Amino acid sequence: MPRWNDAIRRSMTISSASCNLRNRPPSAVNSLTTEDFPISAPEAAQLISSTLPRARPGKVVLAVSGGADSTAMMLLAAQCSIPDIQFHVVTIDHGLRAESAAEASYVADLAQRLGLPHDIIRWDGQSSVNNPSAAAREARYRMLTDRARQLEAFAVMTAHHQDDQIETHLLAKDRGAIGAGLAGMRRWRSLFPDIVLARPFLSIPASRFRQTLLLQGINWVEDPSNQNDRYARARLRKHLQSVPRRSDHLHEIAKAAAERAAADAGMAKTIEHLVSRQALIIDDAAQVRLEISAMRELPDDRASELLARMITAAGGALYPPSASAIERVMAGLGAGQVASTLGGCQILADGKYLLLRREYGRLGPEICNLAKGCQTVVFDRRFLIDIQTSAGAKLCSLGFLRRGNAATRCLPVVVDEQMRIVAAHSKVAGRISPLVEILPAHEIVFWRMTADLPEFAKF
Rounded to a whole number, what is the largest CA-CA distance in the chain? Predict the structure, then answer.
């Protein structure tokens, strides 16, 4: 069973009133500091509304694990009033601990009491990866995004708070980050074309979430890994609890965030300019071309960041390469190097252009087992594919079938149970057979290059 916080082991009562101090005993009120005040429903509504870019009517998925932070977020979402917004709770049962199923069931029960729709989605990939915790984090966002698409929701909302932001900042500092790299998490970023990840509570200390639940007598789940000193974040949490004032950290984060905002605006203008003069081109095969002369006109830091964005997107990588790796590639290009690889991406000096495309590598893009019927699938973080398939079909790369050349091996194809190609990317379908259907694959490389730039948000 879940490990409930002993301090609040009491009967569950749900109040529809806004959080305030009027119902608290005077002694409790006097003992509260500013950082301990519960979050009121109107305050939550204002934070949520101001975070969603160009807020629009529709559904918002709430990512709720059962911990204090996400449970308080769910409670506040049920109590606050935001016109034309419907919340839908989703819990990912990661299966990494024996208690996870019971914790997910607790969230489902509480969501029902609050009048919110709820889904439990189980992740079964923990036995097939070397780093289950990291894989679970990636799978969590992927499954939340998939459910948001199914619900036609325009946002996924998490309960990341000020303590999380400071932890992220300190971890980045420990890794040697400087400047904008110390800005921490963004209030929002794009998860998928037309779906945003919203973090409206980054200015709220963690203690206020717990006070919100204590005021209304709501239980929450305690994850023991949060107290395990094996994890850097757990050690940082204990450090933050012993620091009476965190203003220095918050000042550094604000300064870095301002630098990042300025850099984002500059990058957006650069990309717009390059696209308008056709110096930056992304073709249907998800290959990126950048005029070498145009790149040389950019300041070194802008050129390096642009190259990192292109490599990450064209190579289908989850994370950008390190700054030192980008510096080595830039130095090689400056010295006349015509070919290199980084982050699953081939980088070729092709006459007038710098060409970036997915490298097949040792294993190639991941194979995807397809469900029967109509579905939308993201392939290799580079293509969005709308397809109708029969039972047993798979989505894989042409190279998996030992076909294609360096330019085509990483293009998507659909095979049946006998591994026969039944549909393929338009660039190769005609070469395979007149009977092979053209796969409706749309590149999302440009979206990935600009996903965290407000100027390109599709809202």
Answer: 80
